Known about the structure:
Layout: H1 4-10, H2 16-37, H3 40-57, H4 68-86, H5 92-96, H6 106-113, H7 118-130, H8 134-145, H9 150-157, H10 161-184
Helix pairs in contact: 1-2, 2-3, 2-4, 3-4, 7-10, 8-10, 9-10
Amino acid sequence: MDSDEELIVRSRRDPEAFRALYDRWSKPLLAFFYRRTFDPEVSADLLAETFAVAFERRRRFRRIGRSGAGWLFGIARRELSHWYRHQEVELRAVRRLGLEVPELDDDSIARIESLDEVESLRASLADALKGLSVTERQAVELRVVDELDYGEIATRLDCSEATARQRVHRGLKRLNHLMTKEATL
C-alpha cells in the first residue's frame, strides 16, 4: 500500500491517486471536524474545502519530515480556525475546482453524528462543566457559547477584563483536565 506521501506526490501526474488519499482520510477528518463543531453540515463543508485546498496545493507538498496525514490535518486546522473566527465555511477552493458539495440527507447527518460516539462526548462535557466553579462556568459559557469579548464578559461578571480573562483561562484549563481525566477512565 502506498504511503500518504507517495499518494500526494503521485497525484501530481495522476490525479486519481488523490482519491486513495481521500478514501483513507475523509472519515477521520470528518470526525475531527464534527468533534469540534457538533454540526454535520459545517463538518462536511470543512472536509470538502480541506481536500480541495490539499488538491490545489499538492504540487507544493515536500517530503521533508512531514507526513502526508500531518499535512492534511494542518490544512484542516487552518480551515477550522477560519471557521471559528468567521463562523462560516468559505468554499473558495471547492468553487475554483468547479466542485459542488451535495446537500446532506438525514441518513448522512445521522452517520456523521454517530462518528466517534459524539453523544458520549456531549455527556462527558456536560459532566465536566458541572465540575467547574460557578464563576468559571459562567466565564467559559460567555466566551465559548455566547462568543463575547473579554470586555463584555468583564461587564457581565462585574469584574476587570484581566479577571475575566483569568476566569476563562482557568475554566478552560480545568475543563480540559476534567475531560482528559474522563477519557482515561
